[in-house]
Amino acid sequence: MGVAPTNSMGREIPIPLYYQIKSRLLEAIESGQLKPGDRVLSERELTEQFGVSRMTARQALTELETLGYLYRVQGKGTFVATPKLEQPLLGLTSFTEDMRRRGLQAAARVLSADTVSAGRKAARALRIGEPEKVYRMERLRLAGGEPMALETSHIPVALAPGLMEQVSAAQSLYRALSEAYGIRLVRATQSLEAVAANSYEAEILGVREGTPLLLMERISLDTQDRPVEYVRSLYRGDRYRFTTELLRQEETL
Ligand code: GLP
């Protein structure tokens, strides 16, 4: 495949060579021409085939790696990664349920668990006073042994005294809430935004610093419309793809 110096729109903005190589590789992956586990051309091979510098070839491979399309194996080469997990944004489901539906083993590693004063943000989300106590729990979520998300949950102590022990035993926050406290979460508000992994998050999630992550903030309410949990979840952008269904509203124009 040859690389053109300018784009096909005829504008005067040249498309960088690395970007053209990256796009070709991406096309080959998305069309199924390259399949998960296939080895892709090495930096040296790309250099020879496209007559570009080694740095250019490296940039194309590195970006596709950061986005989760490729992975490198030391001394073996660069390979096509398994497709991202598709996560519908419709139901109020738990991590454990989401993974089970996919036939994957869900796990939670508790990184910290404290009882703290709610503070401004959690207090507002949970509709409680700032000095009121909440459980603050940070958990690394794994699917099939692979780190997927880092979650920090806040739950008012008054609603579920002794919750930490119950979560450790159940391995699922939602199951613990329902089985030990009879709390059923029925609706939630959720936001989604892009962030870059800082060094701590990168280390815990096993990605490079700066890797795109999807930050989800959720406030879940129970049958009595009480806010029960305020959670910040950082999902790996290289492993997740969120999908949603859109309904056409009546035209307003
Ligand atoms: C998802 C949500 C979190 C929620 C968690 C509960 O990961 N993003 O907001 O707290 O599920 O999962 P589990 O019941 O497996 O602990």
Textual characterization of the structure:
With 253 residues, the chain is an alpha+beta fold. The chain is 29% helix and 33% strand. It contains 8 helices and 10 strands. The protein has helices at 17-30, 43-50, 54-66, 95-101, 119-126, 163-170, 173-181, 199-205, and strands spanning 70-73, 77-80, 85-88, 106-117, 133-143, 146-156, 185-196, 212-222, 227-236, 240-243. It has a 6-stranded antiparallel beta sheet, with helices on both faces. It has a two-stranded antiparallel ribbon with strand order 1-2. A hairpin with a 2-residue loop joins strand 5 and strand 6 (146-156). Helix 1 crosses helix 3, helix 2 (43-50) packs across helix 3 and helix 6 packs across helix 7 (173-181). The model is unreliable at 4-10 (pLDDT under 50). 2-amino-2-deoxy-6-O-phosphono-alpha-D-glucopyranose (GLP) binds at residues 94-96, 108, 151, 153, 172-175, 216, 218, 229, 231, 233.
> Which sequence of SSEs, written as H and E, runs from N to C?
HHHEEEHEHEEHHEHEEE
Residues in helices, as a percent range: 25-40%
The best one-word shape is: elongated
Q: Provide the low-confidence segments as ranges.
A: 4-10
The proportion of strand residues reads: 25-35%
Please report the number of helical segments: 8
**pLDDT averaged over residues:** 92
Cα end-to-end separation = 45 Å
Count every beta strand, where a strand is a DSSP E run of 2 or more residues: 10
Oligomer: single chain
Biggest sheet, spatial arrangement of strands: 4-5-6-9-8-7
Over the alpha carbons, how many angstroms does the gyration radius reach?
22 Å
